[in-house]
Amino acid sequence: MADYSIALIPGDTVGPELIRQAVKIFHALSACSEHFFHLEILTACGPGIEAFGCPLPSASLKKALRCQAVLLGNIGSRRYQSLPPSKRPEQALLQLRGAFRVCANLRPLKIYPGLACLSPLKESYLTNGMDLVVVRDLQGGMFSPAHPTTIKNEGKSAGDLEYYSEYMVRFTAKIAFHLARHRNKRVASLDKSNVLASSLLWRKTITEYARSFPDISLTHQYIDNASMEVIRNPGAFDVIVTSNVFGDILSDELTQLTGAPCLFGSAELAADKRGLYTPNQLHHSCEEIAGKNIVHPLGILDAIRLLLMYSCSRPDLSALLSHVAASVIKDRLTTPELPIPGFADISTDEMGDEIANRLLRSSQNEHP
């Protein structure tokens, strides 16, 4: 029997409701497999500020570092926005990123069958559907110099350095190409090599790395053109690999193209396979629906799916969660956060119970 230690950080607003469903999912996974998940609920973000005056108390950080993964519910409450940046709940995530040394971000995005009506795109643009993953570097890109702001004759000035090394690019490329090998074997690398020296290095390094994957089709595109093409024909893309800033902007754009951002998760991976996992709606305040038992939990389920795949190396359990998510949508179940024509609205807790029960039934019937 294999055991896994998972740190759970509820965060604020809808975070505690989502983590409550996550606990149900992990308990169901333990019951239907030969694995046991040790769940460590940590005080951090808003609750850390309230209890200890800091977003990530040292005791919580120590416990997190003993775990294979961290699952974070949500941050973004407006009540903390008047605090200095170093004291806000978001600082907990930044500190965890540094402590875990995460290097790359994965954002899987798709339009489920029957949900194309939610997308803001015309039906003609979705002829080929949409099912892609954005692999975004987290090590390089723009960062603030020691003295980013100065005063000159023309007034204040500021600058950020877009920096990349071959090592950084190769690490991100490795994730993208291995992922593509298990999908449709297509990688699109996005850069701005016509004007940026860092993008020239990016393109050269990606091209060289691709030689080790002759079975993978590699294309290069400029980020501005790709941003238009992915709207015109999202089905033409499979795995997208790009730099920190470009990926940050593009992944949010693509999430909105699905029309259902609350259905997806995000993974931030370290070289040692540990990671930070969140639902896609992280940073959205969601205060208007917090505490009403209506937030949609499929985003936290998708984050757990990624956690199982990358930090626990359990593709079988990850596939089981994919199966359950698809079955919930196929059976036309949703929550009031995501109203869908023809779907039945149930509460967050009811959806969490339904997911847990389906995990148990699917494991018994289809995944012995």
From TrEMBL:
The keyword Magnesium applies. Coiled coil: none annotated. GO terms for biological process: L-leucine biosynthetic process. One of its GO terms (molecular function) is metal ion binding. Pfam families: Iso_dh (PF00180). Keywords: Amino-acid biosynthesis, Branched-chain amino acid biosynthesis, Leucine biosynthesis, Magnesium, Metal-binding, NAD, Oxidoreductase. GO terms for cellular component: cytosol. InterPro entries: IsoPropMal-DH-like_dom, Isopropylmalate_DH. SMART domains: Iso_dh. Residues 5-355 form the Isopropylmalate dehydrogenase-like domain. This is 3-isopropylmalate dehydrogenase. It comes from Candidatus Enterocloster faecavium.
